[in-house]
Amino acid sequence: MTYQQTIAAAGEAISTYGAKWDGIEAESAARMRLQNRFLTGIDIARYTAKVMRADMAAYDADPANYTQSLGCWHGFIGQQKLISIKKHFGTTKGRYLYLSGWMVAALRSEFGPLPDQSMHEKTSVPALIAELYTFLKQADARELGMIFRDLDKAREAGNAVEIQRLQHVIDNYETHVVPIVADIDAGFGNAEATYLLAKKFIEAGACCIQIENQVSDEKQCGHQDGKVTVPHEDFLAKIRAVRYAFLELGVDDGVIVARTDSLGAGLTKQIAVVREAGDIGDQYNSFLDCEAVDAANLGHGDVLISRNGELLRPKRLPSNLFQFRSGTGEDRVVLDCITSLQNGADLLWIETEKPHIGQIAGMVNRIREVVPGAKLVYNNSPSFNWTLNFRQQVFDAWTAEGRDVSGYDRAKLMSVDYDGTELATEADARIQTFQRDAAREAGIFHHLITLPTYHTAALSTDTLAKGYFGEEGMLAYVAGVQRREIREGLACVKHQNMAGSDMGDDHKEYFAGEAALKAGGAHNTMNQFAA
What we know:
The protein has 19 helices and 14 strands. By secondary structure, it is α/β, with parallel strands linked by helices.
């Protein structure tokens, strides 16, 4: 509804109760309705699912329409990110939030900092989803509140043109609420546990759930060693559990991201059940590291499998885990991805050990031979040494071209001594265009960085602490933070406003009229930052 229609609807509701509601203003109620567009997390999930599906279709039409996100570990961080995006780009289109299980473990667990091994409380993840959306909704309420104040000023000045302009702004207001790609790890248990937790995600507002094919109780960060995968049927049961959760809650177009860690996972906890030769269980087992045995060479307690009439002994470790053959990672990734897409997943996540477009494209092209249109969510991970990786990629490319690289030591390319060289400049150019190039060449629909704000918080705090407790003293904060906030137009410099003081004043006036005791008067020190 338009602004005027919302006022009319509120007025109709108020008039039903006659004189006893005379103190309730229709326009004030309408403003509060518009400032709280999403009444439940399900409302958010339904809205953002449609946004994400439309973006996926736009990418299919043109890979230049890829999307991006940054991982945020607190509602305030997510809010400031979206406020910044609207300020600098005028729209949130194509920009999402990523919710990283790694950051929940490291920053949000009641146990304290934990590694990314599914040891944190599972309920802390949907709690963060709800928190992020609370802060994004507050960003809407705050911005609309300022527009309403400007509208009141225009009315007082009798400026009809400005009144019309502001009403148009209100009617076409773009929300800060965007899709969240939410990390459910390996599902925190069996398929029923995954279903129950997925419902909590969706009820908190998640339209997109990412799940990985590791064993829940052995789950590791994608960039750590010791990863253990599960047979496809186990993983597909969890994908179906998430889909049922979406359907039960009426988010029919919810998005599932199936992540495979097989590229770096050399172990499995289970030998898959085989019903007939060549089925998915048989294909999974075909990657096991086995040796042929005969009855005379059987050891006590040996585990055997039969394939094509031959007895094979899979290599079993002291941990009771079974080992895959070396060099099978990419083949397992391709099979994982095809199987997931054929059984209800919408997007893929291939966890790689380096950001190499050729490697990613090689796997995606194989997947697309079977499932045309397959596309990825890709982790532009801080676990990669981007500088060293891309300098080495340029070094290798120049070597293959026959160019002279004698002035560079490949193993030491991270050195500051190479900054400013032609090779370093070329590497930085490739890093700058990595997302665009990978979206075009490797099927990457969504680029995310899992834990960037973990690192930015550490870096900015280190910079401030070094100066403030050193020779700079108070100048470290003034020059390094406040002066930059003012000059770069950060709304947060007015921290009272950002925390909701002006919205509170508006409400006090709605509730108490002239008797309202408001905080935003002449003596509020926030006025020192008036534009």
